Amino acid sequence: MEGVDHLAHERNKSEFDVDAMKIVWAGSPHAFVVSDRISKLVASDPGFRKDNRSTLSRKELFKNTLRKAAYAWKTIIDLHLSEEEAAKLRFYVDEPAFTDVHWGMFIPAIKGQGTEEQQQKWLPLAYKMQIIGCYAQTELGHGSNVQGLETTATFDPQTDEFIIHSPTLTSSKWWPGGLGKVATHAIAYALLIVGGREQGVHGFIVQLRSLEDHSPLPGMTVGDIGMKFGNGAYNAMDNGVLRFDHVRIPRNQMLMRVSQVTCEGKYKQSDVPRQLVYGAMLYVRQTIVADASCALSRAVCIATRYSAVRRQFGSQNGGPETQVIDYKTQQSRLFPLLASAYAFRFVGEWLKWLYADVTQRLQANDFSTLPEAHACTAGLKSLTTTATADGIEECRKLCGGHGYLCSSGLPELFAVYVPACTYEGENTVLLLQVARFLMKTVSQLGSSKKPVGTIAYMTRVEHLMQCRCGVQRGFAELSADLVEAAVAHCQLLVVSKFIEKLQQEIPGKGVKQQLEVLCNIYALFLLHKHQGDFLSTGCITPKHAALANDELRSLYSQVRPNAIALVDAFNYTDHYLGSILGCYDGNVYPKLYEAAWKDPLNESVVPDGYHQYIRPLLKQEIRTARL
Ligand SMILES: CC(C)(COP(=O)(O)OP(=O)(O)OC[C@H]1O[C@@H](n2cnc3c(N)ncnc32)[C@H](O)[C@@H]1OP(=O)(O)O)[C@@H](O)C(=O)NCCC(=O)NCCSC(=O)CCCCCCCCCCCCCCC(=O)O
Ligand SMILES: Cc1cc2nc3c(=O)[nH]c(=O)nc-3n(C[C@H](O)[C@H](O)[C@H](O)COP(=O)(O)OP(=O)(O)OC[C@H]3O[C@@H](n4cnc5c(N)ncnc54)[C@H](O)[C@@H]3O)c2cc1C
């Protein structure tokens, strides 16, 4: 029945202060208040409805996304929302759209790679959305290998301009979000050529479309690259293709914080590392780690609530069947994911601090922590997105058949989420960056340069020193093993940041105890999953492994009475979850049944096509009917 909380009995079992945990999850009392208010504002506004998405054609979906983006912007203006509130509103609208790239990449790229003058010119236009930007780096022939990009930017000293050109088919820009149909401007990455000399890849602000009638400017061939994985909401994003035919832009539209080209045609490299050209990717990778905790927590919330509702087998003397959440197999699949959601939340908080710290240092031309920041953002983006994509799929399976319904919210969450393993750096390529960083650290062991920060533990791996001479030669040969070492390094990071979180003051009855249980589950689950490595290296004995497994089962039993409260602490509205299986009141079956009849296929009792195809079949008139 509507209004009845079918999970009340679960919520009454909680052994901790859920409201206090909501604040821990949000990050602070202020962040909780903003999140709670904005999520309810979005959920209560029919203008942000999303339950009909699966019935729309791609063009309808895309146009609806434009409408929502415009409506969101109007809401932001009308309600005088702050930047923080506006970002939260776009988050809870939960629709992949050009605004993600405009706010998440185009603006950070100008802030990180533009001069003061360029920032003063372009940022006000971007903040007011008087221009809409995209981040055009990837090409048909190159994505991972940025230095392999083929688009050229040739300086013409006669006119004080750059000529942007796509010399080959594979140099066509391919994938940039928002590029296909919406963006008026791009940060386009191209191989800089000055005085006949190639100077590497740099970023350029290029206007793509008229601000009068939105038509592509001369020399631009631009469009959408077509349907993407599943019928999910990511098809609301116009990932595009763009070719330049000798397009001229003023010299002052090359982003010149890292290097400059003078009007005389002199190329000047500032005394900053060229890798600052990659700065926007560092920013997005750290946001993607926070996004991973959000996406995984959504899936875990759905699967946990449904596991408490679903009963299957185990009836005694006609009594109720067993809740599937009580099965040890269900717990051993679900609770490590619950622990991972919290673990990724806290390592994401730390990574946000690390990014802010390195950004502050860069402003003072202190580049000392840039390599570590790159390794951490690259490695944690790779680790958390892989675990989250796999975790969302596991949550779908934990919900049995109903997990495969669009109304469960899980198929779409998976379809929208999985490209995170590829974009912003393909996960294996990024782990190789971490491996390179680790091996560089090994090569410095024994020198005066002592490992600090997240690699300080490596001073204790003296035995690696003997093999360091071989490492340089064997990197390619050993790369598969080194990628595993990179994963282990990142897992250690996640565990250590969870432990550091627990050393902070955490208010609320039972809250810290619950987090300690989740931290132990996360760490012991990893030990269990990789016990072969731990045993083969002598880090643990078989007895330790057995004790760890016993402890895991005990920890699952400790989580069980608190599971619903732990996912309630995410404070997601039913609107944002978009899932009948995960609805707050647990009233699943009536809602599933009601939703089925809303499917367009049920608009008529006799399906379209019956008289043309089925009736002749049934009446054996097939021989005469024209197929
Ligand atoms: C790193 C590469 C793989 C290789 O680069 P190179 O070949 O140039 O270098 P080397 O491997 O030789 O390394 C040289 C040297 O540099 C160091 N290095 C490398 N990268 C960096 C870096 N980023 N920072 C610092 N240092 C770096 C490296 O360690 C070496 O050092 P040593 O010599 O000392 O060893 C490179 O090619 C690469 O990065 N490839 C990956 C390409 C990539 O990531 N492409 C992404 C394209 S953009 C994209 O995919 C966008 C997806 C967007 C999806 C949706 C949007 C999500 C938005 C989230 C935010 C939303 C927020 C909204 C807010 C709101 O609404 O308000
Ligand atoms: C949904 C989506 C949105 C995107 N949005 C944008 C955007 O807004 N702007 C933008 O510029 N780009 C965007 N991209 C492009 C994205 O950044 C690239 O697809 C990504 O960087 C991967 O590059 P790639 O496609 O060239 O993969 P590849 O590098 O070709 O990967 C293919 C395989 O090769 C392997 N491989 C590659 N190099 C090595 C190596 N050195 N050693 C070992 N293995 C290797 C990889 O591990 C992978 O298994 C988007 C992509 C997607 C899917």
From TrEMBL:
Pfam families: ACOX (PF01756), ACOX_C_alpha1 (PF22924), Acyl-CoA_ox_N (PF14749)
Gene3D superfamilies from the UniProt entry: Acyl-CoA dehydrogenase/oxidase, N-terminal domain (1.10.540.10), Butyryl-CoA Dehydrogenase, subunit A, domain 2 (2.40.110.10), Butyryl-CoA Dehydrogenase, subunit A, domain 3 (1.20.140.10)
Localization (cell): Peroxisome
Amino acids binding FAD: 138, 177
Catalytic center residues: 424 (proton acceptor)
One record GO biological process: lipid homeostasis
One function term, GO molecular function aspect: FAD binding
Domain of life: Eukaryota
Descriptive protein name: Acyl-coenzyme A oxidase
Organism in which the protein naturally occurs: Rhododendron griersonianum
